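User: Could you write out the 3D structure of this protein bound to alpha-L-arabinofuranose? I've included everything you need below.
Assistant: Certainly. Input first, then the structure.
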Amino acid sequence: MRYIVEPRLKGAEINKNIYGQFSEHLGRCIYGGLFVGKDSKIENVRGIRSDVVDALKKMGIPNLRWPGGCFADEYHWRDGIGEPSTRKKMINTNWGGVTEDNSFGTHEFLDLCDQIGCEPYINLNVGSGTVQEMEEWVEYMTSSNLSPMTALREKNGRKEPWNVKFLGIGNENWGCGGSMRPEYYSDVYRRYQTFVHQYGAQKPFKIACGAGTGFKGLNLEWTDVLMKNAAHAMDGLSLHYYTVLGSWEKKGSATEFTEDDYYRTLVRAQFVEELLSKHDAVMSEYDPDKRIWLILDEWGTWFDVEPGTNPGFLYQQNTMRDALVAGISLNSLQRHADRVKMANIAQLVNVLQSPILTEGDKMVLTPTYYAFDLYQKHQQNTLLGSLLETESIDTADGGLKTISETASEDKDGNIVITLTNASAKSAASIQLRIDGGRYEYASGRVLTGDMHDMNTFDEKNAVAPKAFTDVKIAAADDNGTEAEISLPSCSLTELVFKRL
Ligand code: AHR
């Protein structure tokens, strides 16, 4: 298969926020996964798990969304501040009906972001919260002037304001966030965002709730109405898309699946391309200069929960199939870098397509973790023009392109390429041409295995990236560089070429 990269065709910067993550008060994501409390035997800093923080730093996580999800529109921030033992308890009605003791709140979340070194993205409550409550939360977090909110913050142990830029105004307000119609939500959005003020140097970046979509269900109307009525008042518009095989009632196992299930899952990941193109086209009717970010702030696989676990906790294992979903989706997100500037996979730990799983004091890094790790060199690079001739695999849901790709250039002129090979059985031979210059192969890594391969608490390193050496430079001169690459089946590969 022929693959041409054109370094003279420069695209947009690949915003690092495309590698964002999502953490909700759901199942064991926060409690157990990220937060164990300061009296836990598990190593922690002010209650936050050190093993997880260390792993996230290595993965290069740029931002973290919290507290939901559906939970966000039932979350009342005042319940989660002050002395933990006195905090109000509530029922988590969305996720398993369990008691939420609010021991992880604003201070703990922002401490977590500080420890990881990532930016917070806070989803404000529109569905069941008042304008005043929302306005005061932003003031509590970001103002340094004397006010009842800043005095309260200081009383709770934090004198300096935090730097919180990304603010989501409602979540899935067409569903769990209030069952609103787009016309109504546009007005509600306009009203709520009016009271999100700038207190310090940081201008709030206001994110409107976008459409919920499904495979071949684009819901462009929501985007159209929102853009028509509220584009002037937003910096970003979100979008949710889950890779679901089967029906919501029977989505299938995360670990036991046929080759046909594997390919049909990947066709759904490939749909991200169409999803982004079509929503971008609608947004461009109102915002041709692409000022407003399209933000895929919930994406990833959603399978049946692991047998024997609470159905409301959405705990699923993670295989090479998930890594391929991540690799194909990230390639699409990056290739839309002119409009798509942020994305958040659901969810960070122990929920849905997680990079990290925990069980007591044990932690395991999933194939999805390694997909993010493998792709991270693209962050803040310049997207390059590229052309790929790829074969296609037939499925009942349409053709699946065997190969997906992204090419980018870093500040030193080196070229970073990521490629996925979806074929479950066959290696793929790629004839690469980097046009207009002489390059050498500097380094690369590959993540590969059987589509069912996964890491477990007993076998933590069954899937992990290895050095990739299957690159032969066939010719190189000032007109271009030719290389032969052999990609193993079911794989994600990262390649770095150095300009000579
Ligand atoms: O990620 C799980 C849930 O999926 C979120 O709470 C909600 O926004 C979406 O429906």
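The chain has two domains: 15-380, 383-499.
User: Perfect, thank you.
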